[in-house]
Amino acid sequence: MKPISKAISRASCLLSASMFSLYSLAGSFDEHPYELSASFKTPMDTLAGLTDWGQGINYVYAITTIIVGIVFLAVSIPLIYAIRRFRVSDEEFATLPLPKQVHGNVILEFTWTIIPVILLLFIAVPTWQIIFRQPEKHQIPPGSMRIEVIGHQWWWEFRYPSLGITTANELHLPEKTPVYFELSSVDVIHSFWIPQFGGKLDVMPGKGAENYLFLTTPSLQHPEQNGGEYYQGQCAELCGLSHALMRFEAVVHEKAEFERWAAVFHNPPVVQTALEKKGELVFMQCMSCHTISKTPSEDIEKQMLAMDPPVHKAGPNLTDFGSRRMLAAGTRTNTAQNFHDWVDNPPSIKPGSRMVPLGLSKADIEAVAAYLRYSTAKTY
Ligand SMILES: [Cu+2]
């Protein structure tokens, strides 16, 4: 037993020494942002770390992995050594005396209590640093862009108070810009998550329960391509039947392109063909739940909001629906067929959907599809 305890105490000395040297090597996070391989960029890659917030989390993750790795080696190497070195046959084992008992050995017990405490501190301190880098509401850096994120079963509403824009399921962002998301919910708890941007944050119902997430949007990975870069978002808190189908897309634009998007957002729909005109009429049946800027549906919304208490429409704002890549909260591509299937029977696509089947004829769906998919499309 003696050589083993000697080996263990040596190993623990080595361990703490290496922790200190690792720390001095790594320096502070700000000087050496820890970047894990940028090559595997799947849509749900939480290690992509494309924002300062995501890199901070990766940094803590890396430290944790290193510490866990060292603990693994420090335990498994002596263990394997002991198993091999002190291996005996069953018969021989029966003749051996009890090993020396160390119960109540103050030094040993103190050592194996203090080592985990130190290791946990090495994880806790950077974790605190990263958490406290998220500002409180009153510490939000001036000049950052405020975006209200409102969770609904099972879709996302995005409001830009400074631009007077309300949209849904497609979160447009200018590149390299500090933004803060004010997260709230109208029903149950959701969780706002763009994996490639970093960690998730709960979206809570109830006044005063807002959460705030502050980050700097990534720069464009392929600036030569126009039209923004898309990142998948996903609700990350079980929120009911269609929780898994509560997605969205974040679109990062060049700054000028974002400004063009915001400038044309409220342009009224351009209704040209006879089919689109018919669709505009069919859309009357949708106005109790959906709003399109500069149409009568907006007046209905104003009347509803002026009531006491104010009534919010149940469905997403469709002002720029024609420009959206996806429908049904980021779960289907915005094609004629998917549009038909959705409007014909929403719960068949999203179980429990708060949009009910409206019993429209095929011709009416085709008309409202023309109106929504083409008249509301914006060029920017
Ligand atoms: Cu959810």
Question: Layout of helices and strands, plus pairs?
Answer:
Blueprint: H1 2-26, H2 52-85, H3 90-95, H4 106-133, E1 145-152, E2 155-160, E3 165-168, E4 170-174, E5 178-185, E6 190-192, E7 201-203, E8 211-216, E9 229-234, E10 247-253, H5 255-264, H6 274-282, H7 296-306, E11 326-327, E12 332-333, H8 336-344, H9 346-349, H10 362-375
Parallel strand pairs: 1-5, 4-10
Antiparallel strand pairs: 1-2, 2-3, 5-8, 6-7, 9-10, 11-12
Helix pairs in contact: 1-2, 2-4, 6-10, 8-10
The protein binds copper (II) ion.
Copper (II) ion (CU) binds at residues 190, 235, 237-239, 243, 246.
List low-pLDDT spans: 23-40
What is the molecular shape?
elongated
Tell me about the largest β-sheet. Answer: 5 strands, mixed
- Distance separating the two termini: 76 Å
* Total beta-strand segments: 12
Main β-sheet, spatial strand arrangement: 3-2-1-5-8
Domain count: 3
**What fraction strand?**
15-25%
Q: Total helix count?
A: 10
Mean pLDDT: 88
